[in-house]
């Protein structure tokens, strides 16, 4: 049996309520939901004719793009640190 505590939090993302279950803290879950909501609202303000499904996909594409850029930067910095240790 697992001792990992799961938190269930209800969040509002773009006017819809979602119950999110995770092992992260409630404040972390709320923060993530807030960032998603902010990004959806930003994209929607630039493209008001998008339906919610397309808006959600574009938000996911933006989030993954940001993630990949950060991951690449992290790898670059790790290599730089490794080079400095040699």
TrEMBL record:
Domain of life: Bacteria
Keyword flag rRNA-binding: no
One GO BP: septin ring assembly
Primary location recorded for the protein, binned into one broad class: cytoplasm
Keywords, alphabetical: Cell cycle, Cell division, Cytoplasm, Septation
Subunit structure: Homodimer. Interacts with FtsZ.
Described purpose of this protein according to its UniProt entry: Activator of cell division through the inhibition of FtsZ GTPase activity, therefore promoting FtsZ assembly into bundles of protofilaments necessary for the formation of the division Z ring. It is recruited early at mid-cell but it is not essential for cell division.
Official protein name in the record: Cell division protein ZapA
Recorded name of the encoding gene: zapA
């Amino acid at each position: 049996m697992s001792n990992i505590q799961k938190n269930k939090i209800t969040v509002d993302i773009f006017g819809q309520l979602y119950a999110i279950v995770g092992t992260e803290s409630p404040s972390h879950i709320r923060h993530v939901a807030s960032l998603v909501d902010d990004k959806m609202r930003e994209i929607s303000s630039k493209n008001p004719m998008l339906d919610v499904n397309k808006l959600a996909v574009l938000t996911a594409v933006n989030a993954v793009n940001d993630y990949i850029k950060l991951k690449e930067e992290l790898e670059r910095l790790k290599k730089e640190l490794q080079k400095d240790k040699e």
